[in-house]
Write a structure and sequence with these properties.
This is NAD(P)-binding protein. By secondary structure, the chain is of the alpha/beta class. Helices cover 40% and strands 13% of the residues. The protein is built from ten helices and eight strands. Strands 1-2 form a two-stranded parallel sheet. β1, α3 and β2 form a beta-alpha-beta unit. α2 crosses α3, α3 runs parallel beside α4 and α8 packs across α9. The longest helix has 15 residues. It is globular. The relative contact order is 0.15.
């Protein structure tokens, strides 16, 4: 109802029935997918239907770290889907954003009550971007860039590059609140991450070892005036 009140058209579809997907995509120029990890598989029939009705650009549900070449874990599904889109022959754009700076702290971090669990040393650099900034970047690039600068490209954006320890220190300095931080040894984090259902451990491992996806000079180059918010501001805006 809130989306409809803001001008969105709501359409009920059956992802197992291509006959319901094609009419919903008729006349659409750009298909933007924002599915969560557990629903990534439904992108496949969407991409096929998009190709059939002439959608001009597919934006898969990446919106995270680098998925290129990944063959295991949640990122493998994203990598496989991009390969499928390429095979279908529909132009694509992928956005690398890093973890959501305004949301991911709700995943096992009890910042409000002053307790935080960190996997590993907490010193790995991470590229964080808030969801509102991601939305702004996507909207801007889709309307400001030419097809040549959009089609079949990976666009990298970043709100702030900072370690978890850096975020926690900045949060405490900004708010005056003391956080009780517990560090979990990296080998224990690896063991937990082997259980594919332990998303928290998997993320902790990613943040510790491969939290960025390019040099700082590669970020936000398609919109130099981007001006994203920092991580602490994102946390406070979404979790006062």
């Amino acid at each position: 109802e809130a989306l409809a009140a803001n001008g969105a058209s709501l359409v009920i579809v059956d992802y197992t029935a291509p006959s319901s997907l094609q009419p919903a995509l008729q006349g659409i120029d750009v298909l933007i997918c924002t599915f969560g990890v557990t629903a990534l598989a439904v992108q496949a029939p969407l991409a096929e239907a998009a190709k059939l009705v002439g959608v001009q650009l597919s934006i898969p549900s990446e919106f995270g770290g680098n998925t290129a070449g990944k063959s295991e874990g949640p990122l493998a599904h994203k990598n496989a889907h991009l390969a499928q889109v390429q095979q279908i022959g529909i132009p694509w754009t992928v956005f690398y954003t890093g973890p959501f700076a305004d949301w991911v702290w709700r995943l096992g971090f009890d910042i409000i009550n002053g307790k935080v669990e960190v996997g590993g040393t907490g010193n790995g650099l991470v590229s964080w971007t808030s969801r509102s900034d991601i939305a702004r970047y996507v909207a801007h690039t889709l309307t400001a860039l030419t097809k040549e600068k959009l089609h079949n490209r990976v666009l990298k954006l970043e709100g702030q590059r900072i370690s978890i320890n850096g975020v926690l220190a900045a949060y405490q300095e900004r708010t005056g609140k003391k956080l009780e931080v517990t560090y979990i040894p990296l080998e224990e984090v690896r063991e937990r991450a082997r259980d594919k259902g332990d998303v928290k451990a998997w993320l902790q491992l990613v943040w510790e070892e491969e939290g960025t996806y390019g040099a700082e000079g590669e970020m936000n180059v398609d919109w130099p005036e981007f001006g994203p918010q920092g991580v602490v501001n994102a946390i406070l805006d979404s979790w006062p």
